[in-house]
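[User] Once you have settled down, look closely at the record that follows, and write a paragraph about the fold.
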Amino acid sequence: MQEKWLTVPTNEMEFKVLASDKMWRLHNLYYITNEQGTKTLFRPRDAQLTFLLERHGFDIILKARQLGFSTVVQIDMLDDCLFGLNENAAIIAQSMNDAEEIFSTKLKFPYNNLPGFIKKLVHPIRDSLTAMEFNNGSKIRVGVSMRSSTLTNLHISEHGKICAKDPQRAREIRTGSLNAVHSGQKITIESTAEGREGDFYEF
């Protein structure tokens, strides 16, 4: 199935045509560091590809380790911000240390390793340890809660652990962050299982 997204462009016109396809971009543009810490081109694994093809907008992933769901969600979110206009994307992490690590490795690293002409076209006008705001009106940020503005794309990482360790913050996420995403936008909640109670279990 993936072969149709592995075409290599031979000129600028072919690139423009291919790059108009989100799935082609997700197979050819973004570099990540793999489990061995080596820079490698991101190519969706079977489970990641199934998620991309079957997601419906409000997705809850009960995940196993090393399937790469966090990575694919965050690369997909970065792609929305770079190739869309006025996207407002956010990632909620278990802790600020986790948030900064996600931003550095899953967002900033793939962006920094894009072809130079793409970074010239879409570049940050504001940049920090936890956020990038681009010249196309899109922005992406990470934190432990998001309440301040309307979001077009929200990813809650390890929500089961948040619910188990900090029920008050889980309630804040439910009442504040989730309500910041309007109908028709994207919400992805993923976590390993953490018992049979709390918001993640109920979701």
